[in-house]
Amino acid sequence: MVDPKTKQKEGYCQEQPLSSFPLVSVIIPTYNADYYIETTLNSVRSPTYKNIEVIVIDDGSQDQTAEIVRSVAQQDGRIILLQQPNSGVAAGRNFGIQKAQGELIAPIDADDIWYPENLEKQLQCFLQAEPSVGLVYGWSVDIDKSGLPTGEFRASRIEGEVYKTLICHNFLGNSSASLIRSDCLEKVGGYNCKLKENNAQGCEDWELYLRLAEHYQFRVVPEFLIGYRKIFSSMSCDHASMAKSHTLILQSVRQKYPEIPAVLYRLSSSSFY
Questions:
Q1: In the prediction, which pLDDT does 194 show?
Q2: Where are the alpha helices (DSSP H) in 63-112?
Q3: How far is CA 99 from the centre of its chain?
Q4: pLDDT category, 8, cuts 50, 70, 90?
Q5: DSSP label of 221
Q6: What is the mean pLDDT of residues 63-86?
Q7: Which domains does the chain have, with CATH numbers?
């Protein structure tokens, strides 16, 4: 049995009854995701934490995505469909965040899934955290087209003041693993739309995490709570765009913090590649 003091030191968020029920705004940007969107919505709708609104942003899809979302929304009034001309994932997330009413923002990509206790566990962690904490994240497993684990996973215990470590590598792993205080997002701004303008999509989540880490501490729930889908058509498989995205973000950080040792940037590039 793990000693309670050890659990606290290692970053465990001990379970306790929820003392309050803040609204969580789930943000789902989607583009031509009719194959997965219903599965994703069902994973979000059926958690152990119920006080949510689910904002789906259809980014100019040309398939049946919007029709599927409308059909599921007829069964669940918490689901809201927004539509915009194709503008990219960052613009879609920002649009959803602007419309969100929740105290906490929970992004998830349109082909990923949450396991049932994801929101409850992360919220419990927030309720126990000091005000300096702006983001809580959970562990994720890679899943294939059928939703089965591939054997790859993200399981970090890094927390607290994480900025320099986050430069070295995105230990959160993906954009579907975090719960973020909405007032923190208001302070640092939303997702970076300029990456799409430079044909460099792919690392928007890491760039936002870096800006959050400049001002706030991170906490971790050390449990596998997210299924991160890795398929050929996903943005993470566009290696050229991802590499350009990573390079532009590193350049921006180096200009802002020239005093940070160059070895951290070299570690970041080697870790990424």
A1: 84
A2: 65-75, 89-99
A3: 18
A4: very low
A5: E
A6: 97
A7: 20-272 (3.90.550.10)
178-218 tens-digit pLDDT? 999 999 999 999 999 887 777 767 789 999 999 999 999 99
* Average pLDDT taken over every residue of the chain: 88
Residue written as token pair 């962690």: 125
Q: How far apart are CA 227 and CA 240, in angstroms?
A: 24
Q: Could you identify the residue written with the tokens 């989540």?
A: 205
With contact defined as beta carbons under 8 Å apart, do 223 and 257 qualify?
A: no
Crossing angle of helices 65-75/37-45, nearest 10°?
A: 20
Residue for token pair 């940037």: 265
Q: Are 205 and 165 in contact (CB under 8 A)?
A: no
The residues facing 113 across adjacent strands are 227
In this structure, what DSSP letter does residue 237 have? G
* Structure token pair of residue 224: 């596998």
Question: Tokens 């990573």, residue?
Answer: 246
- Indicate whether this model's pTM tops 0.85: yes
Residue 267 in tokens: 């570690």
Instruction: Encode pLDDT of 131-145 as tens digits.
Output: 999 999 999 999 999
Report d(CA 181, CA 179) in Å as an integer.
Answer: 7
The Cα 167–Cα 171 span in angstroms is 10
